[in-house]
Amino acid sequence: MIRVAIAGALGRMGRVAVNAMQNTAGVTYAGGFARTRLPGERIFDDLHELLTIEKPDVLLDLTTQPSSFTISMDAVAHGVRAVIGATGWQQPEREAIDAAARKRGIGALIVPNFSVGAILMMRFAEEAAKLFPSIEIIELHHDQKKDAPSGTARLTAERITQAGGPAKVPIHSVRLRGLLAHQEVLLGTDGEVLTIRHDSLSRESFVPGMRAAVRAVMNVTGLQTGLSLDEING
Description:
Dihydrodipicolinate Reductase, domain 2, Rossmann fold
């Protein structure tokens, strides 16, 4: 059994994650961390206390930056693997958690998007990038999302470039009430345009990826960014 604690347990994503981890085969819910302490729900307001008492194998971090960096680094320092849903991590922070995790001989995962559909969208965009010389990304999110462009859009652009696409892929960001998480990759060539679009319509769309990530991080050493289809299927 993998013992999973959740940081940001009282947020909208956190509530979904708590319910998911309580109903996942091979996983035991090991309490949560939030600003408000709720002993009846095993929610701690002290991260050190949570990690010491509950002794999780994995901390699923659903907070936002800059708190996410401190929380995940503290988890790794306690020998707890970190699965990080927050975006906005800068390269020096990535290097720091990679080094800390390797020193401990454990893994950390930064997952910009837990949705299976979003993972497929990035895979399809990589393949199409080899054949379309002109590519742009439009990402659309709810008006409370702090970072722009999104981590999913940045990772998509990186993977397009690595696959042989343009060296710089323009990204356009929309923040609008009523949206959740949406992305279009527009690919153009002479006489035609290909559109690859993904829409998350509820936070439950992220649950399969969360489950896959807490299992996958058990087999990682150092920092890995993103989930593969094999890890989702595994």
